[in-house]
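Colleagues,

For the teaching module next term, I've prepared a clean inverse folding example: a structure given as tokens, and then the sequence designed for it. I'd like students to try predicting residues themselves before seeing the answer, so please don't circulate the second half yet.
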């Protein structure tokens, strides 16, 4: 059900189709601005999910500045900090560090968590929701392909479709067997 660029007509609960890479935060900032200053609804939250490779897009940082300037506390952004993107590691393609410092410099509340730990995610969302005087970003440190040894941290698996050779039928079966054997016990090392 999840797509690389989710479409609201295909995924229940999704209110907006973000379209081109990097446009989700701009759309979220516009919605949050409307909720905060025009159609005043202080208890409605706006959530946006971004990959770390997506942070190479300039419009992300324009939206981050805008949200910080207007103290859009209804926004909670998630960054999947898995250190890869479609053509390599994020640090090889375009270094992102100091990621926390960048967000803080634009006036955001920043949390860094283990993105494989459901309790950490729930706690971070609770804290972000409680902060109403500035936007929040949750940097979720994850391992791409977590639990499937031949996929972990390998950017070649990013964006591949079944039938294109990535993964082939046997690799997909092997990956599914490995994931099922974990019985929901996928945890990360970040804390």
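(Answer key — instructors only)
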């Amino acid at each position: 059900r999840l797509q690389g660029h989710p479409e609201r007509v295909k995924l229940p609960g999704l209110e907006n189709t973000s379209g081109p890479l990097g446009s989700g935060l701009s759309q979220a900032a516009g919605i949050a601005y409307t909720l905060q200053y025009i159609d005043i609804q202080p208890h409605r939250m706006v959530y946006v999910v971004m990959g770390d490779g997506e942070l190479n897009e300039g419009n992300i940082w324009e939206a981050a500045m805008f949200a910080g300037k207007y103290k859009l506390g209804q926004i909670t952004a998630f960054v999947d900090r898995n250190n890869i993107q479609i053509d390599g590691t994020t640090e090889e393609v375009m270094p992102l560090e100091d990621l926390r410092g960048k967000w803080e410099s634009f006036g955001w509340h920043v949390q860094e968590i283990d993105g494989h730990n459901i309790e950490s995610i729930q706690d971070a969302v609770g804290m972000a929701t409680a902060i109403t005087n500035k936007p929040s970003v949750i940097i979720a440190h994850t391992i791409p392909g977590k639990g499937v040894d031949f996929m972990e941290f390998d950017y070649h698996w990013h964006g591949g479709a079944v039938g294109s050779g990535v993964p082939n039928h046997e690799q997909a079966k092997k990956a599914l067997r490995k994931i099922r054997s974990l019985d929901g016990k996928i945890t990360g090392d970040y804390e």
